[in-house]
Specification:
Chain lengths: ~350, ~375, ~350, ~375
């Protein structure tokens, strides 16, 4: 924590608080991008958070971008702001130029992959990716791909010439399936991505992004529920006075705190640290696991009111139910952790845990 | 403790005859395109489908013939309900009228009202909603504030009701209103009315829910006039009438089969030769569904015997909705999908539908907390 | 339900109530058989429940034996009374003679099996079985075995000449591993067991026995907890008045009722009914699943008191924690159910369920 | 809401130095046969092992040097505790004295008492038990009835205490007794005493538990005399002294690592190449253990900073014991065994040990219900 960061986070929290309201969420439910809201984010420099100051950016590192991502989760910010910040960071990490506009990245499923074939000075990109966040809305996408020789690359493509099958998650955030068929890319749109040695995978960056959004949204859902429980009178007293309600929310608070700790620990880890992969897996697994008990308690406390479109709770809970599935659900990441631990072995388990910190 | 025993109950032969009749009806309706199997549930409003059910004699079968019924047993009726739900038939239009309003009218209404309304319900042409909850009352019915004031020839209703299913499409409401002081036990001074929604003085506002649909409504009554004839039961005895019959609402197959479509699609998703994890999960669900259904049938049997198994019904509902709530959480991990409403793949769509609706199942018809309180009292814990 | 059965159950309930007390449980914790208690059961005719009246038995059918088994579970009756009744029933089912004494049956794990080889007029029995209930204590054991041709047989063996490795479950009930090595058996000690066509397997009979014991013991644990909650005063009132305690026991009551329903339904099914196998699987799976929530609630309500040896709760809970594992835990039986359902197929699922009743 | 934030806290270099020192000690102790790794826990009483810990300077490291300590940080102490637990070392003899009694003595005791007792605790030669609960009080400490009456030069104690761990083997008890009226908030009139169990007037009765062991004891005081010097803190302020320091008891690694041996054996049981189900289960546990440990370290850091994170500690304990309670239930299905105490196979034995003990973990040190009440109050719900 430093002062500059605190100020930035405080300002951004206020900006989100001022601009993201029930109207914005309702508008976003159509699945389209709210351009005027986006303009506010651009104006505040958020969309260029990762870029060099020389390019009009804020030169933020991954930890700061993830702190903003958590705020975006807390406010259920409509639009691909975290995706845009992180796509910018990814491309800058491979010394790419400053990417402008609305950005996304992918693929988001382990099974999907893109192939690059050389074409004169440039490249051609082919392949499919399912359910890319804002894939059909973004101006450009940062994509992981492989050459025919198997070398890992990042490529920047514009989905204009793409076969797009639109879809959405439970919050109607666009999740579009893309097919690229020999899309020509200029030489400077493709760069080596040394993920096999040390770098993070796009799945990991995406999982970390969602873990932070989940942690932020869970905290908000808990706060809304506490407030509602104190306001709502039943049987002659606020329902917050009922032991069953108190215990339900106490348990939920435990899950919120655990999700938050797991996400923060991973966000604080350097991507080059050998424990980065394990921490990301723990973050997405633990945050995903928290979604159900917290949203259950929240809806139980809110009663019928929480199911109305008018009440804001569902704008958060529908996102939570979707985000936990995206970039790998908890089971996928638990398997990752389990395999690392199994390979480490029972007698090296405790040293691994203390080493992880 | 005796209050929480469930004796296994075999469905009688007549019920199994009825099952064949319903399956036959459903097969023909599906073949004729009158509904799309698996897609709908007890909250899907389809007046045309309900009319067909009425024509086939599948509504109000327990009622006297003089009111359009067939004087069949409660267990035969149970079979109709579960077959409709398992098929995913759109029974939402007549569901409330058949389950709650009809029986209340039969027991408590003015003879002329019975003669007028019951045959229409049984014919699948007359639909009801429930006007119990209010913006500030929720599960606490004793706090009802909508007021009925006696006037010449009837009552004037003023107040607001909320969470009425499909109020914009039904003909009548069962309305609970305050007609006097609550008294020391907080349960007095409430009266039930039948409210004709085609009459002036009531405004209906749809409430959009988180799935984007507007199944719930709010109603505002402004000097709405109800003739004396439409008072249901005795003035001031509404509370016991409402709470005394909750077993009918709480133990039904709708408390088990709401996510049946997801269960069926999960079986399809794991395939004919599931791995161990898939077989286990399916096996656990089936062990629970079969057992819950047996408990539900046991309660239906008690109802058929004229008993009032309120605590057993509360227990079945609590266990049933807990199971329904678990199901999508386990299903999402069994065969991972990113749930999407209206997805082409049935499993993905069913997962989305159940994920969005399941949290409401532990609230409708008495929250989990209310139900557990009823069970605890029966256990002798209060 | 008929009158005779009601009277028998009532009498047996009274007998267990009179004879099985904390002293009897404490004595049984040594793992040995309480011969004087056993003599009481013999005197009451319980040990010969399944035998022909001509042999001094009560000629009870499986459903009645299972009703007694449930009572035995309710009272956590020390000694292999259910095993003895059911072993007698099994041997009688293949027209064997009346077996006297303390009986057991096995094997209890799917992987274990015995082999029979012809030897003159008689047979020789070889094989191993792990953790046979009271295997080293019983006078004789009814064992399933196969001939070299694969024909299913039942055999009666006396474990006297057996290699026995003693063990126990969490309640210190003997669970002994047995090795038979060419044990000679007279011709009339071996009979064909048509399990492959229609008959129940010994695993099924054992699972049904344990499901009934679990259902009985769960009911008792619930009653003890309700009583304790009404008696125990904390913070100035009986803990039964706390909403958290009420709800915990309400949930437990749901599991008790479900376990009971599942076990009763299977016990009422004729062994020759094609749905017997599925009902047994459902019974053991559902009863096993109920053990954790009910014992958890019971121990939580009883607080530290429930962990003392002096209080009787643990004599039931330790048995419950053991019985759920024996003759297949819930996962094993869930797999059975799952495979039957998967084979039946999604579109035949509902007819299967209604057919099952 | 701010009260339930947990800031990630990295252990300082000194703590990692301490870790190496403890591992070294443990490796040598295991090699010399002074303990059998993995088998014991924080309730295993081994006076000889504790003396070795004391000799190695691993007890009371946060205390002043003048009292036998090393004036190290609370985080260094944390590392000692967790290393001992993870190794399954038999630290039960000095556990309570080091965790609760020593700090209380340091803050509240008469100087002569401090000088006499603390160095003995630090040397691993002096052990304590807790005398809070009574047969009729349980979690409700305000209802304590054991009475201390002022007499010449001290106090006479009469009454019964229960659930004291290893009372038959320890030297002293921290005893809470009634010295005056409770007052309107029910929390007054209680005083803490140090009770020397070698003196006459106290009878100790072991209580056998469900595992067959007698770890708990009951103590009966009959005109037992305590000199004034052995009063801990001010007369009448016992309640706040006891409850104010619960964070020390509730957030420690013992609330996470009690079943660590089972976790380790489960990893061994699934092997180096687990199937999907095995990998998932192990992965879920590890995600939870790592996160809980981070939260626990965060609380230790707050304690090191002189804060009183009572609600955070309650939350960590609730989450930790819930996890500990889940673990054996999942483990039994992951690698099915029939659990058996003292089985030769480590996994079977660990499963039995944890199955029998886990239900008590949600009761010790404040029941789940008490903890959730504390959390709810901090959330602003009361």
């Amino acid at each position: 924590m430093n002062d500059m960061r605190d100020i930035l986070l405080e300002q951004t929290d206020r900006l989100f608080g001022d601009t993201v309201d029930a109207d914005a969420w309702t508008a976003a439910d159509s699945g389209s991008l709210d351009r005027s809201l986006w303009a506010r984010f651009e104006e505040a420099g958020l969309t260029r958070a990762a870029l060099d100051e020389a390019d009009g950016g804020s030169d933020l590192g991954l930890a700061d971008i993830l702190a903003l991502t958590r705020l975006a989760g807390r406010h259920a910010v409509p639009g691909p702001l975290p995706e845009t910040m992180l796509a910018g960071w990814l491309w800058r990490r491979v010394d790419g130029d400053a990417l402008a506009g609305v950005l996304g990245f992918g693929p988001v499923r382990p099974a999907d992959c893109f192939t690059l074939t050389p074409d004169g000075q440039g490249w051609r990109l082919s392949g499919e990716a399912a359910r890319v966040p804002w894939g059909g809305v973004a101006d450009r996408l940062v994509l992981s791909a492989r050459t025919l020789e198997g070398e890992a690359m990042l490529a920047v493509a514009e989905p204009v010439e793409t076969a797009i099958t639109g879809g959405g998650n439970l919050a109607n955030e666009p999740r579009d399936s893309l097919v690229f068929d020999d899309l020509p890319l200029a030489a400077d749109r493709v760069r080596p991505w040394p993920e096999s040695d040390r770098g993070p995978t796009l799945m990991q960056i995406g999982a970390l992004m969602r873990a932070q959004q989940i942690a932020g949204a869970l905290q908000r859902v808990l706060e809304m529920s506490i407030e509602y429980a104190n306001d709502r009178v039943q049987f002659g007293r606020p329902i917050a006075k009922f032991q069953a309600v108190q215990h339900m929310l106490a348990v939920a608070a435990g899950h919120v705190a655990a999700a938050s700790m797991a996400a923060e620990a991973a966000a604080a880890r350097d991507v080059d640290d050998p424990h980065f992969a394990l921490d990301v897996a723990i973050a997405k697994a633990r945050a995903g696991e928290a979604v159900r008990p917290v949203t259950d308690a929240a809806h139980q406390v809110h009663g019928a009111m929480g199911f109305t479109h008018e009440h804001s709770l569902h704008f958060l809970t529908r996102r939570l139910w979707s985000w936990r599935e995206e970039f790998g659900n908890e089971r996928l990441w638990q398997r990752e952790i389990g395999r690392v631990v199994a390979t480490t072995g029972a007698d090296r388990l405790w040293p691994l845990l203390t080493d992880l910190g | 403790m005796n209050g929480l025993q469930f004796t296994p109950r075999a469905l009688p032969g007549a019920a199994e005859d009825m099952r064949r009749r319903v399956r036959d009806f459903l097969a023909r309706a599906a073949a004729a395109g009158h509904y799309r199997p698996g897609e709908a549930s007890w909250n899907s409003f389809d007046a045309g489908f309900s009319r067909r059910c009425g024509e086939a004699g599948l509504i109000g079968v327990t009622w006297p013939r003089s009111y359009g019924g067939e004087e069949r047993s409660y267990l035969e009726r149970y079979v109709i309900m579960e077959e409709m739900l398992a098929a995913g038939a759109p029974v939402g239009a007549h569901w409330i009228a058949e389950r709650q309003s009809g029986p209340q009218i039969l027991t408590h209404a003015h003879p002329a009202v019975k003669a007028r309304i019951l045959p229409e319900i049984a014919a699948g042409r007359c639909f009801f909603g429930i006007g119990m909850s209010e913006p500030d009352s929720g599960s606490d019915l004793a706090s009802v504030r909508t007021r009925a004031t006696q006037v010449d020839g009837g009552w004037k209703i003023n107040g607001r009701k909320i969470w009425t299913t499909n109020a914009g499409q039904v003909n009548y409401l069962n309305l609970l209103a305050r007609t006097g002081d609550a008294g020391p036990n907080r349960h007095g001074g409430l009266t039930q009315f039948i409210v004709d929604l085609s009459k002036p003085g009531v405004e209906i506002r749809p409430i959009r829910d988180l799935t984007g649909r507007a199944e719930f409504c709010e109603e505002v009554f402004d000097d709405y006039f109800v003739p004396d004839e439409m008072v249901l039961g005795k003035v001031g005895e509404g509370w016991s009438m409402v709470t005394g019959e909750l077993a009918y609402e709480r133990s039904g197959p709708d408390r088990i089969l709401s996510p049946f479509n997801l269960l069926r699609e999960a079986v399809r998703a794991v395939g004919e030769e599931p791995d161990d994890a898939g077989a286990e999960e399916i096996g656990r669900w089936i062990a629970n569904v079969v057992t819950l259904r047996r408990m539900s049938v046991s309660v239906a049997g008690m109802l058929a015997d004229g008993k009032a198994p309120n605590a057993q019904a509360a227990l079945v509902k609590d266990l049933g909705t807990t199971f329904e709530r678990e199901l999508p959480e386990q299903a999402r991990l069994l065969a991972p999908r990113e749930p999407e409403q209206n997805a082409a793949e049935p499993y993905t769509a069913a997962l989305a539908q159940v994920t969005l609706n399941a949290p409401s199942w532990t609230i409708r018809g008495g929250t989990r907390e209310i139900l557990r309180g009823i069970i605890a009292r029966e256990l002798g814990l209060r």
